[in-house]
Amino acid sequence: MSADGGMADAQFVRRRSEAAMPGSCFEGAGGVEVRQFAHETSITKAFACGKKYRLSEISLRGISLTPHRQEDAMTRPQNPQTRMMVALILGVTIYGLAMGTTYPLLGLLLSDRVSGALNGLNTAATGLGLMTGVVLVPGLARRLGAGRAAQAGVGLLAGALVALAFLRDFWPVFAARMILGCGAGLMFIVAETALNAAAAPERRGRIMGVYTAANALGFVLGPAMIALMPDRPAALLLVCAAIALMALIPFAAVERPVSRLVVSGSGRHIVSALTAFPLAFGFLFIASMIDAIAISLMPVIMLDRDFDVSQAVLLAAVFHVGLVIGQPLIGLALDGAGRRRTVLGCCGLSLACTLPLVYGSGMGFWPVAGLMLVWGGANYGLYTAGLALIGDRFRAEMLTAATAALASVYALAAVIGPAVAGGMMNALGAQGLFGAAAVVYLTALCGGLWLFRPVEPEWQKHQIR
After folding, report:
1. Which of 24, 101, 107, 407 is the most buried (most CB within 10 A)?
2. 99: closest CA among 233, 222, 238, 236?
3. What SS3 string covers the chain?
4. How many whole angstroms separate alpha carbon 429 and alpha carbon 359?
5. Alpha carbon distance 302, 311 (integer Å)
6. At a CB cut-off of 8 Å and minimum separation 6, what does 85 contact?
């Protein structure tokens, strides 16, 4: 028995060593090494009390995995992760509908009551609310969990929409829009952090392109609803509140995985993220500022260009149709052509769209609509690129802090952009406003050509070179 057993031990150890080679079905199984198997066999021989154990039985005790089981173990987490991403994107689409309705609708409602500068200041209230959300996210995420913090944001958003349905005076509307912005901030800081943390690097651009496109879909449907029902603002806002509450369903479904992915940061990490990647946040600022101006004041700007109310609102919608169509393409470019080329391409294309609007004051509806379509996609491509760049650069609590920094930049742009644009409308009209946008894009393009050098993902480096 000892001779046979010794020969079996030797053969088993040899087979085990060969099986542990890369590519075999035993590779890494259970983390057990060859010498551990030999030790287990010797103990079995010493203490078996006359019972003969076959080595094949020992190897079957939860030690080896068949190729099918290995494949299942590798793919099992992916389906819940995909479901989580879909749920987050669906929830933020509902947020986009609420914001896409309130920005142009309230701008039109206040245009007859206050000056352009005060109208822009009222629009900036949403940005101030977003900043408040940035301050509240770390504490709420620690106390409630990130998933529940996002659900609290849904509640604030819906409550603000109900209030806005009945308010028409400047300061009450201002306060309600701050609450709306705070709720929106809680939602999309959590959603963007979780999406970036879950996204594979080689697919991050495409995932962020789908996310921003879904977000923009609400900004298309909102102005379109206003164009169809221009005389029923209260009913529109109440419908938006009801739809916003539906976001509780997808956010509640993924509460636990989201809370695990989003690691709470602190205020000092936000400043560190900004200083670590200033140009990326600069591009985000430009995209957010132009988008806030477009969705809030574009109808008013186009009224200055002698378009009627329905046409003016539809042009704002067309701007965001371009955003929806363009972002998946921008995402493909980010993963294929590289981050830097895509960012500079978006700046150049936006500049090419704004220059004709400066000099073509007599352009008809369809030529302007064509420019708006391309401009919307190219401008917001800077935001999509910024999300991917942040996901490439930061991890764990720094990723949460960087997303909060992004929200701060977005909020600051939402405050500054409409306020400055409203004042420029009074002083220079629509032509001067488009000229200022062209100067911004030209500056960004020149600065990006000389200074912007993001760390391209590994699979793209051979293409960039």
Report:
1. 101
2. 222
3. CHHHHHHHHHHHHHHHHHHCCCCCCCCCHHHCCHHHHHHHHHHHHHHCCCCCCCHHHHHCCCCCCCHHHHHHHHHCCHHHHHHHHHHHHHHHHHHHHHHHHHHHHHHHHHHCCCCHHHHHHHHHHHHHHHHHHHHHHHHHHHHHCHHHHHHHHHHHHHHHHHHHCCCCCHHHHHHHHHHHHHHHHHHHHHHHHHHHHHCCHHHHHHHHHHHHHHHHHHHHHHHHHHHHCCCCHHHHHHHHHHHHHCCHHHHHHCHHHHHHHCCCCCHHHHHHHHHHCHHHHHHHHHHHHHHHHHHHHHHHHHHHCCCCHHHHHHHHHHHHHHHHHHHHHHHHHHHHCCHHHHHHHHHHHHHHHHHHHHHCCCCCHHHHHHHHHHHHHHHHHHHHHHHHHHHHHCCHHHHHHHHHHHHHHHHHHHHHHHHHHHHHHHHHHHHHHHHHHHHHHHHHHHHHHHHCCCCCCHHHHHHHC
4. 13
5. 8
6. 195, 198, 199, 207
Q: In residues, how long is the chain?
A: 465
Query: Rounded distance, CA 364 to CA 316, Å?
Result: 15
Which range (92-96, 153-157, 243-247, 333-337) has the least confidence? 92-96
Comparing CA positions, the residue from 78, 90, 130, 404 lying closest to residue 252 is 90
Q: For the segment 422-432, what is each residue's pLDDT rounded down to a tens digit?
A: 778 777 777 88
pLDDT at residue 230 is higher than 80: no
CA dist 284 and 343 (Å) reads 10
**Nearest of 223, 233, 280, 271 to residue 447 by alpha carbon:** 280
Structure tokens given for 218: 């609400």
Q: What is the pLDDT of residues 58-112, one digit of tens each?
A: 333 343 334 444 444 444 445 677 888 888 888 888 777 777 777 777 777 777 7
- The alpha carbon torsion through 68, 73, 75, 80 (nearest 10 deg) reads 140
Q: How far apart are CA 101 and CA 184, in angstroms?
A: 14
Q: Nearest CA to 339 among 201, 218, 438, 440?
A: 201
Among 346, 85, 317, which residue's Cα sits nearest to residue 216? 317
